[in-house]
Automatic annotation (TrEMBL):
<comment type="subunit">
    <text>Interacts with VPS4B. Interacts with CHMP1B. Interacts with CHMP2A; the interaction probably involves the open conformation of (polymerized) CHMP2A. Interacts with CHMP3. Interacts with CHMP5; the interaction involves soluble CHMP5. Interacts with IST1.</text>
</comment>
<keyword id="KW-0653">Protein transport</keyword>
<dbReference type="GO" id="GO:0010008">
    <property type="term" value="C:endosome membrane"/>
</dbReference>
<dbReference type="InterPro" id="IPR044538">
    <property type="entry name" value="Vta1-like"/>
</dbReference>
<dbReference type="Pfam" id="PF04652">
    <property type="entry name" value="Vta1"/>
</dbReference>
<comment type="similarity">
    <text>Belongs to the VTA1 family.</text>
</comment>
<keyword id="KW-0007">Acetylation</keyword>
<dbReference type="InterPro" id="IPR041212">
    <property type="entry name" value="Vta1_C"/>
</dbReference>
<keyword id="KW-0963">Cytoplasm</keyword>
<dbReference type="GO" id="GO:0005771">
    <property type="term" value="C:multivesicular body"/>
</dbReference>
<dbReference type="InterPro" id="IPR023175">
    <property type="entry name" value="Vta1/CALS_N_sf"/>
</dbReference>
<keyword id="KW-0472">Membrane</keyword>
<keyword id="KW-0813">Transport</keyword>
<dbReference type="InterPro" id="IPR039431">
    <property type="entry name" value="Vta1/CALS_N"/>
</dbReference>
<feature type="region of interest" description="Disordered">
    <location>
        <begin position="172"/>
        <end position="258"/>
    </location>
</feature>
<keyword id="KW-0967">Endosome</keyword>
<dbReference type="GO" id="GO:0032511">
    <property type="term" value="P:late endosome to vacuole transport via multivesicular body sorting pathway"/>
</dbReference>
């Protein structure tokens, strides 16, 4: 079924769902869930949009039944960790390629797809400031590298000194989605999303016709190697996750933990378990350290 023009803002999230149909059904499910929730806000009254969204709901219900025994579907905290780890893995792959000066379509798409998956995290609640900054940086990088290659220029490898935070903030999420840039920032050439669009608007179930690029390596044993996330240096306006202290003070017997603290600690442990599924030791250690710090000090 063709995507109504009123819902064009979710086309790349739906395309990402198609691409992961077999490779990672959990990613496909949450991309569609995000698309449905966003689509309902965009236009749920126009007959063509209503018809499209109802079909998308049916597809989600079907997927939910098929994946009912998957913890990432039945438990939101596990699903959240799964999507976040996947998005950051793609970000790391693209960032490593960028730092090594290897500019190609797969790395551009990896930057962009990671930003789409960080959008998807909003189905679990408000995005953390870190993920908002990573999303902004990934979209800006994809735009910058795409336009350099399009214009026959060599991109500058790695983080670029952009000066003050305000300047970095100009590279808003909208700039890459084709909806115009925020704060009046301008990019050379067309946004990469124009190149990503193919003419086939059939976004229903079934194999994706592709969007101009070969699939970028996904997280997992066959994907990009695990990297210590704390080693990444990102320019102002796009900050890497804060380091966790290497040494924690000895447990104080008088530490009072609230039910919320136990829930948070459990969440960090689940994040770590999800990271280990992808053999991502750095992320697993980081989350275990957060859980340990919370349990031993009562503070995050």
């Amino acid at each position: 079924m063709a995507l109504p023009p009123q819902l064009r803002a979710i086309q790349h999230h739906l395309r990402t769902a198609q691409e992961h149909e077999k490779r990672d059904p959990v990613v496909a499910y949450y991309c569609r869930l995000y698309s449905m929730q966003t689509g309902m806000k965009l236009d749920s009254k126009t007959p063509e949009c209503r018809k499209f969204l109802i079909k998308l709901m049916d597809q989600l219900e079907s997927m939910k039944k098929e994946l009912s025994d998957n913890d990432s579907i039945s438990q939101e905290v596990v699903g959240n960790a799964h999507i976040e780890n996947y998005a950051l893995k793609m970000f790391l792959y693209a960032d490593n390629e960028d730092r090594a000066g290897r500019f190609h379509k797969n790395m551009i798409k990896s930057f962009y797809t990671s930003s789409l998956l960080l959008d998807v995290l909003s189905v679990f609640g408000e995005l953390s400031e870190e993920n908002i900054q990573h999303r902004k940086y990934a979209r800006w990088k994809a735009t910058y590298i795409h336009n350099c290659l399009k214009n026959g220029e060599t991109p500058q490898a790695g983080p670029i000194a952009m000066g003050e935070d305000e300047e970095a903030d100009e590279f808003g999420a909208e700039g890459f989605s084709g909806a115009g840039t925020s704060h009046g920032a301008s990019f050379r050439g067309d946004p990469p999303s124009q190149s990503f669009q193919d003419q086939d608007e059939g976004l229903g179930p079934g194999p994706a016709p592709g969007i101009g690029f070969t699939p970028s390596p996904g997280p997992g044993p066959s994907g990009p190697p695990a990297t210590n996330y704390n080693n990444i240096h990102i320019p102002p306006g796009a900050h890497a996750p804060a380091n966790t202290p290497a040494e924690l003070p000895p447990p104080a017997g008088s530490v009072h933990l609230s039910p919320e603290d136990f829930t948070k600690a459990q969440k960090y442990c689940k994040y770590a378990g999800s990271a280990l599924q992808y053999e991502d030791v750095g992320t697993a250690i980081q989350n275990l350290q957060k859980a340990l710090k919370l349990l031993t000090t009562g503070k995050e």
